[in-house]
Design goal:
Shape: rod-shaped
Largest sheet: none
Number of helices: 4
Low-confidence stretches: none
Structural class: mainly alpha
Radius of gyration: 23 Å
Distance between the termini: 19 Å
Mean pLDDT: 90
Helix content: over 70%
Strand content: under 5%
Order of helices and strands: HHHH
Length: about 110
């Protein structure tokens, strides 16, 4: 197969995928889900930064009689939240999104 005919075949396959309604739904679903997670992450992260900027006294309050302040568990919560939403995205991508992608690729190959 020559380079030109191979490029044409690839272009046609890409066009078939882009015209597939399932691909359009996948893109829409995946983008909406990613935006929701992004907004949640921004709210949590900038909420924490906002607390640092505007309510240092709250974060500086000691927990119990030790030296650990309230800011430490809240900061840890931000980190754990990041890990959890990453896990949620990976789980959904590996189950739902990958299954749809596989069906779209099979349809395009026909």
């Amino acid at each position: 197969m020559s380079q030109t005919s191979q490029t044409t075949a690839t272009d046609q396959a890409v066009q078939r995928i882009q015209n597939n309604p399932a691909y359009q739904r996948l893109r829409s679903k995946r983008n909406a889900f990613a935006w929701v997670l992004t907004i949640l992450m921004l709210v949590v992260y900038y909420g924490y930064v906002g607390l640092i900027a505007f309510d240092k006294e709250l974060l500086a309050k000691p927990i119990g009689t030790g030296v650990t302040t309230l800011g430490m568990p809240i900061g840890l919560g931000v980190i754990l939240f990041t890990v959890v939403i990453t896990g949620i995205y990976v789980y959904r991508a590996n189950t739902e999104f990958d299954a749809i992608t596989e069906r779209i690729l099979k349809d395009a190959a026909q």
